[in-house]
Design goal:
Chain lengths: 366, 366, 366, 366
């Protein structure tokens, strides 16, 4: 069976609409447009309900790639999985991470599992399905499809499952009400948490981390149910879930591999260093930093208002949302280890790792 | 010559007006009210112009200590140096650090310099003096006085000089204008930077880090002029500078010592670890964390908009001030090493360490 | 039966802790400390969970009044009803409104009902009682007591009922959870809405605006149930409800009277003008503005996301809370009619007037 | 000489990228794409440095109009003048205002001046030219060109001059520094004020409101120099100034006319009513509201920190920028008179009307 080869490229951006770095890679021949499977991006909005930088970035990427793929701009979104995560607080630096797949590569796997990526998406949800069982179930199906797409058989070879999921706006709430349906919450900001949490439980179900009996009754209530590899981001720009599943596979000829660890809380420096080591890097060694491709982590304000017994004030701040605080502070820690602010730290880790903490994955050149 | 003994206590607070932890220490006999020299605090406001948590905390502390010192509340401020630094973004946890001095201790210095603290203050400034030569000069004089107070002779034994300095408000700007005087900037938020910067140049001049020719002409312009040990915080609640100078002295019988390092940028994990080691601790060793008393650091959004060549967005964010971003992100890194969020990270490092970075000092039990 | 006389004074403040205007009125003999019944204040915080300007203002007022009342600072709060409403966005100007009552006045009622004020308070609530039936019931009882205190018999003579009510913090949520109790919401900001809404339903029940069958089942759901004269503000500084009830009574010898109207939405200029006229003033006549004592209004972001069919963006703004938007924008309209920014506009009008709008009351010299 | 006919259409938008209302008007035949001269828009960003909704809206409009104009998307911007003003705080509702011109209309002027619009633009500025004499001069030239384009001879027939102008970002400041040039301010947010102010002085110079001797020496210092009809908005998306000049002309066959008044401060209800009447409408008459096309106003936080002698807190708020406060609060007043939130209120009125106030213009059907 022929192998897939995967490459992952990290490209700094100068603004949400900046595609110049991507186009330069294409022009130089380093990146074949047809090979682009997915683009994960950190954009510089507030990461909240009215963060339009995510949508704008997708529009700009579609406009740029459409002529190079022979597609209309709208068709690009069906072909490539886009996950734009808003919020580059603190030292975080806006950038794109491009995942490229070349199928049927001549060559052989080096004898150990190497980086492999699969994508899938769900159908569109109704507003009242967001943060409920329907979203959990459809996500679980999509995760299974993405595993097949990545040619990964064992859940233990899955190291990071990034989901993009929808949120509720005033308009969507009103639209559901007009049909006599109640949504899970009328608050747009709160709906982001429900949607991220339901998506994470969907991952956990697909990977066997929770049983089929865990569903919306546990959502946002029972924090002992979670996935150790799920990462979800909510955005205004879509009504379905997009799944990008990353792991290692013997069907891959990639020069890269991925590993992960789980932060127990927002100041878990040891876990960040472990994640580095799980990908074959040596934390605190600056030569290792050269082999780093990117880090992917979730940040969360501990829901009980304390970290290692000491109070934090993120949840009671009515000026800055807790997700912005969390990205800034966890971003500082991870950037310190990585030696760069161009890392992917996303806020809101509901059911993504243990309460207070979250997964952290590292892709590195082997 | 009899020795001074110094103790430093870190006390979590549940709100800006919370003095219960302080009073419990006094009741238990662990802290003698008469011995309190200075209180440094992280309060949970925005750290900006309209952060009244600093002023409120001082009022609460004065009210609580007045009967125990036999003073009126207003007199307490003349006796104890208060520095309230607003802003506990991210994992930072509100707390007080109390510096206590007992003079004429029977006993002997252990043969190596130990923690010693001195305090001083300047006269009140006029609004138009803030961020100008007058503030630099008066601060330099006060730093020299604080060194004498701490019985420290050599500048190399000074490891941290914390200054509390005033800021401009609309009212103060208008008052100066009514007298025909122009202030350095009409923006309250911008004035905080000027005041912090002038204070830091005052420290640098007193410690011989810059020559007497460096003054307001270089202020906020020539970032190559700075102090490696200055830390200044601006607040609405005073019109003079308060100086708390911390170092090691052979005149001290304290069980504590202080060391410091200098962060070259906001993600300089190595410098944070060095600071730990300079105080005799071993970074990444959790037993060392038990001997930690507190860390004191300055956080800054790199003024050129980039960290190690990659763009950050802190300076262009019109929703969250750069100082809030900086405290959150540097706080995350330092808390990761310290294993606690109850660390003193203060924003705005103008002329406090190299542009982009800042000093980080560690007090530990020897 | 002897009459009560009431006076109402509006005093600008220069900061949350500023009591100089109040003390000047006392020194001048214009205000007798013993006569102070209630103080309503607009303070310049964010009006959200972590707005400590409210608590700080109360501390400052208690410290200032205690020696003048021969009480300890803590006892002042039992004697005087304090309602601090945070948030002076836009043109709103921080100020105190002092309500003074002199009993047993020699003189006679002028033959028409005149301003009368009564106060009362509930017991402390448990965290899990906030936003539930217990809060509604206890508030209704306190409103009835305040009517008696104001010597007002008919609900139609009640024109404004201001309530100060508690909110939930992370700590309070955790404390309840430790006792096995679930609070109505874990979000501090959201709890403010529940608490305000339950308080308003309590007013409505006491005044016969809703039946006894309306309770927590309708709270935050059925917006057709409301009081036309309730105004509630949530704050971190208390755990009980404080009621200040204002109306007209023939038992009053006051030179003042109060009237009110109901804004149907946030741009209801006509209702603001009607409220002026209901108090005997002529809107758009600047001489009338001289007889104005103060205006009291509630501001709300229309919950369906639209005003007169056009979308607003207050509810979807993740940078600024909707209550801050609402105070700024309704404050602009009311200040335009009043000719001054020192008006009392408070945010969050859940069950206080029709959804989208809220009550607006005017006190004027007759 | 043949006449021009002008139409102005106000179109609500559901998001920054929403062009559906515009396309519906085109499809229905009500709007001829070739006739579009300018589009002024209120978009729902923060109106600050990192407000990308302005740029995104322009991209969306260009993409939508390009095929209908037979142009490439980038060419649309050269043909149509776009002014996107960010910030729909409070009751303000996001919308587009489309100005359409049909030349050589058969018909006659009705015997009185009617609405006429002209556009022009300057060359691109260097970062160091922003907020300096070069920007003032080039703007004055462009205003003169726009008057000719509008066929307006007398300055007294000019009622509103909208300018879109650039701002400084960290990158632009750094680029200038690399060439050895100092920009007027290193703060992106502050640069917006300089750019708006210089643009307004350019208008004032072109219309003879100030002499040629007034320039950068007076900019942001001498508030007695201003234009009564200038309105400028700064944005990240351009480096030149765009001018849209609106007045009445006998060369116009439009069914519309424009009038204006000048608000003396942010609560000047009388001026808003006067502006209505200057356009032939009757304020407070709801039938008049039906003939209203749109209102255009500038909002400003009074620079001396007070309105009619009472303190406001907009300038000292480190959580919300003063321009956001000002739009929300002035928007509330204007929407109250207009009966709709879909009005154009733009923040930052430096040299645009007297300090504290600003111009307010009304377009109405005659």
């Amino acid at each position: 069976m022929p192998l897939n080869s995967f490459d992952v490229m990290r490209i700094p951006t100068s603004a949400p609409g900046d595609v110049s770095g991507l186009l330069a890679l294409i022009s130089s021949g380093a990146l074949e447009p047809q090979s682009i499977l997915a683009i994960l991006s950190k954009t510089e909005g507030n990461g909240g309900v009215n963060d339009f930088t995510r949508e704008y970035a997708v529009v700009a990427l579609c406009n740029a790639l459409a002529p190079r793929l022979g597609l209309a701009p709208r068709e690009v979104e069906s072909r490539i999985a886009f996950v734009m995560s808003g919020g580059t607080e603190g030292v975080l630096s806006p950038h794109l991470t491009v995942f490229a797949r070349r199928p049927d590569v001549v060559g052989a796997n080096v004898g150990e599992p190497r980086l492999s990526v699969g994508i899938a998406k769900t159908r569109d949800f109704l507003p009242e399905e967001i943060g409920r069982d329907a979203q959990i179930e459809e996500t679980a199906k999509a995760v299974a499809a993405a595993m097949r797409d990545a040619r990964i058989d064992a859940a233990s070879d899955v190291h990071f499952v990034q989901i993009k999921c929808p949120l509720l706006t005033s308009e969507r709430v009103t639209e559901a009400a007009a049909r006599g349906r109640r949504v899970v919450t009328a608050s747009g900001y709160a709906s982001m948490g429900y949607s991220r949490g339901a998506s994470a439980l969907g991952v956990a179900r697909a990977l066997g981390e929770i049983g089929a009996d865990v569903g919306e009754a546990q959502l946002m209530k029972d924090w002992s149910r979670y996935s150790l590899v799920a990462s979800s981001s909510a955005g205004i720009e879509l009504m379905h879930n997009v799944v990008i599943l990353i792991g290692n596979s013997r069907s891959s000829a990639s020069p890269l591999r991925i590993g992960h660890a789980v932060m127990q809380d927002a100041i878990d420096l040891q876990a960040v260093m472990e994640a580095f080591e799980s990908a074959g890097l040596s934390a605190l060694d600056s030569r290792s930093q050269d082999r780093l491709v990117n880090i992917f982590a979730k940040a969360e304000a501990s829901p009980n208002g304390a970290i290692r017994g000491l109070r934090h004030t993120m949840l009671d701040d009515s000026d800055i949302n807790a997700t912005r605080h969390a990205r800034a502070t966890v971003g500082g820690l991870i950037a310190g280890v990585a030696g760069t602010g161009a890392v992917y730290v996303s806020g809101g880790a509901e059911h993504q790792g243990p309460a207070r903490g979250g997964p952290v994955a590292v892709i590195a050149r082997a």
